[in-house]
Amino acid sequence: MDFVKMHGLGNDFICLDHFLFPTGMDYAETAVQLCHRQFGVGGDGLIVILSSDVADARMRIFNSDGSEPEMCGNGIRCFAKYVYEAGYVQRDSLKIETLAGVLNVKLEICRGAVHHVTVNMGEPCLDPIKIPVLAGTDTALNQKLEVAGQEVIFSAVSMGNPHCIIFTEDLELLPFETLGPAIEKHPLFPRKTNVEFVKVDNSGEITVKVWERGVGPTLACGTGACASVVAAVLAGRTGRTVIVHLPGGDLKIEWQEGQQVHMTGPAVCVFRGSTLES
Ligand SMILES: N[C@@H](CCC[C@H](N)C(=O)O)C(=O)O
Question: Is pLDDT above 70 for 278?
Answer without folding.
Answer: no
